[in-house]
Please model this.
Amino acid sequence: VSLPRRSRLSGEDRLLAWLRSRYALPHLGDDAAMLALDRPFAVTTDSQIEGVHFPPGLDPGRIARRLLAINLSDLAAMGAEPRFAFLALAVPEGFAHRRFFRALLAACRPHGVELAGGDLARSPRLTYAVLTLLGTLPSRGRWLRRDGARPGQRLWLGGTVGESAAGQLLAAMGTAGKLESSEGVGTESPAIRRAARHALDRHLEPRPQLDLGRWLGRRKAGGALDVSDGLARDLHRLCRASGCGATVDGAALPLAPRFAELCRALDRDPLELALAGGEDYVLLFTLPPGLAPPQEFCCTEIGSIDAGTKVRCTRAGRTRALPPLGWDHLGM
Amino acid sequence: VSLPRRSRLSGEDRLLAWLRSRYALPHLGDDAAMLALDRPFAVTTDSQIEGVHFPPGLDPGRIARRLLAINLSDLAAMGAEPRFAFLALAVPEGFAHRRFFRALLAACRPHGVELAGGDLARSPRLTYAVLTLLGTLPSRGRWLRRDGARPGQRLWLGGTVGESAAGQLLAAMGTAGKLESSEGVGTESPAIRRAARHALDRHLEPRPQLDLGRWLGRRKAGGALDVSDGLARDLHRLCRASGCGATVDGAALPLAPRFAELCRALDRDPLELALAGGEDYVLLFTLPPGLAPPQEFCCTEIGSIDAGTKVRCTRAGRTRALPPLGWDHLGM
Model:
């Protein structure tokens, strides 16, 4: 049974003073951030837990960037303009807070995100970080919703799938430190080692597709969400919300360079990782036939939205049911 | 190295379906909650961590109510009207999710709070819960700010202090289960056992002072915050933000019935717990002389706001510096 510690200015107050002296953070410091917005906004919250979402011992800067990226991806999936962030951070003794905040605020800047509030706590063992993001509806934009898919629309992906899952498998094979120097990849070929480093990087630092989301919000997009729990599971969610079915062309799925070779080295089926791996953080969306995103977004048409409720996948000329494979956060 | 699990509908999706079938939660289900507010609003975020903020093994319903209460207390300290909640919940296997959500939503109802978003995750060991609350500025209200105290104003407390810290010491002496049946209190007297149960309850289920906060927002209140890290530390924060000093009358501090006896049984100094204990979740605020809150709020005048920057406490006729005792979340 221990009583609280004493010090002139608490560590929390000192960290806050340090933050406010170095960054323009006008909303920090009171019991809550006072805001006013004259347009609709979207709010999302997402967690990053050591040993669950990222490997133990990961650099605090990378944790911060990953935390921001996966939250931004949710706003991208709404077509929103990111504005304000609220952080809850619980870390064990000795955590490099300033390193974390420097990286977080540096990553916030290009997206126009302001850290407007937060809560700091001591965690008995692991690092837990939760970010809540508030983003506004752009002028001339509409919200992208997951219930907007309609039969006859084409199904699109904003980038490659499966690579992040390969990166997660690599991360689980060794400590983060070892992996950063690309040991522990389990292969001799320099090309596959490069692919492995790329997969690890893709897993650790996802790139939220905010520009694509805003483009979709200005166009006649149908339904949209970001692929976080696996393409198959998230496609089922899109179809369930929209009351429709879909057919995916397995051969059309966009894969990273040398992905098949990397999967062979990892003893995994590429299509399985692509369909069920998760944490891809690319947008899955539908568009009317004949409309395609600009080439710069590197999107791929992967199938169609159908009447009915069946979700199917075509592979080697055969069409079969696609079960909702993927990550289950409760594992029930 | 394990791959994601498979099931027809994920545990997360099933929980979400269960929630939406039983409660009116129109904003749940997309990547982010889509909102629009025509008035200013305040956002706060706060964490509850097993073994840090509440004893291991605490009933999920109590965890939910405590999580909501400490967040509501931040909105109370702003004079805000609670509106929307966003939950991040990470729990070990076997956690009773539905019990948690039933209690959370039951506790939200009387405050008009709608659960509008969230994130569920598996935690390797401990329960981590983070709630972000959004509250609006009431019509005819002003924000209560911590930088609004001015010399000459009177200093007030919204309720007793120290009791929650006594409850925390009791909680740390045994498991929550034992304590609920009032064993492990370490005393024979029924009156002290009652005081102990009351202290434990006060610690586990704080009562946010929302009505008092709104009353203050409609009056000429000066500065305000909620006492979460100890009266002394939070008074220093109020004074630092407002650029003033304060003198507390130690004899005026409101204490719970039989608090001195309970402290004797716990071998603690009552004034120390009252000044430095923390987690009281009562409002600390200033008012111009001659203005007092209605009796129903049970507030107590405990001192004055002074020119200068000194924070002092008068006890037994002597006035001494009051150091910023209290809880430090980083313990640095």
